[in-house]
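2024-03-11 09:14:02 DEBUG pipeline.ingest accepted 1 chain
2024-03-11 09:14:02 DEBUG pipeline.ingest length=445
2024-03-11 09:14:03 DEBUG pipeline.predict start
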Amino acid sequence: MFNTKISGHVPPEIGEIKTLQYAWLFSNRLTGTFPKEIGNLTSLDTIWLNNNSLQGTLPDIFENFDNVKDIRLADNNLSGSLPDSLWNISFDWLYLQNNEFTGTIPMETCALVDDMRVDDSSWFLDEPKVNCDCCGTPLHCNVWDIERSTVGGATRAKCPEINVYEFQFFRSYEIHDFITNTTSDEFLGFETFTMRKCVSPTGCYKITTKADSASPLKDTYFGYSNFQQGLRNDECDAVNICGTWIDVDDPKRVALNHITQKGISDLSFLGDPSTAAYKALCWIITEDELIHEYNECDGTLIQRFVLAYFFYSQSSDFGEQFSKVPTSRTCDWPGISCDVTKTFVENISLPNQKLEGTLITEIGLLQRLKVINLNGTSMRGNIDSSIFQELPHLSEFIISHNNFEGEIPVELFNLPMLQRVDLSDNSLVGTLPDTIYPKKLGACV
């Protein structure tokens, strides 16, 4: 069955086609559930139902799939526990990512599957939706499609536009990240597509594509150019971080790429040692003794950088306090408290401290935040509304008795867990949205 952009349900009668070997129904508008009758297709080799809108649980019907080599169910709305009968099959490809599946992949399964993709992201999560200890570095940890709302089962903050790399391809593409030595690919259909990927401005990549059905495969190399301080074709330079060159094979290059991809929107600061971003990156890459204890894939490394950036953006007096604790763990820094496992920052509470700086936009990357209390700190500047795009747990936002100005960030009031807001004694202007009044919200403005 070929991809014809069909809609509707997958008919249960499909199970009567006993000789069916290849079921290609990907990238359509299919809805409904995954028919259990597919379990009757013992001759099946390939079933592609990815990029549809299927929902419900996946039936436990795979015990007789002795011939199947390729199952792709990615990018649907399927949910529930992954069926046990999947783990006794030797697959070439098993793609289950970007669904709502839960479960644990048995260790022995990885020896049976050449290419397996599941929702194993631990990005600001206590544990991933699907645990897979044998899956290695998640492909979506370093490069991902910005059009998807979730990546590997976790919500990621918006990619800085300067870090978006756009390319066209026919049918499929492959992108290789030389720094992490990971490769991702995707087959979308027999037509030309435009893909927008979030990459690192200090990264080094190769994209393999075809322009059309008649064209040969073409490799495009691009990476960091020290001269241009950004991505350029056929470049892959070392990066100068405050006098230290971080080369392609330097273990710290992975951490550097991660930070420049997610935590910094413009590399021009590399030429200005007076900036807080320069000081924070210089510290974490060249001085931080604990840098290798933090993970690029769970959010704890970007969390450490963002808080260092925040501290360096405050007064010199407060910077002196921070300079005394850089060898301690992030959750032990002044004014910082974390969850019970001491993994994710939940509270930034620094009332009546002499901060005098700004509220950096990157604070919004700390997706587990519950409380921001900066009352009476003499902070200033505008409050960027993008801070509140991905803070689903924020319950208190207290910035009273400061020197903030500009528009009230109305996006703040859309947060689902918000209970207390205090914006009083600032120079903020604007109108509060009517939608806040049905909520049980204590607001002072």
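2024-03-11 09:14:41 DEBUG pipeline.report The first strand starts at residue 7 and ends at 9.
2024-03-11 09:14:41 DEBUG pipeline.predict end
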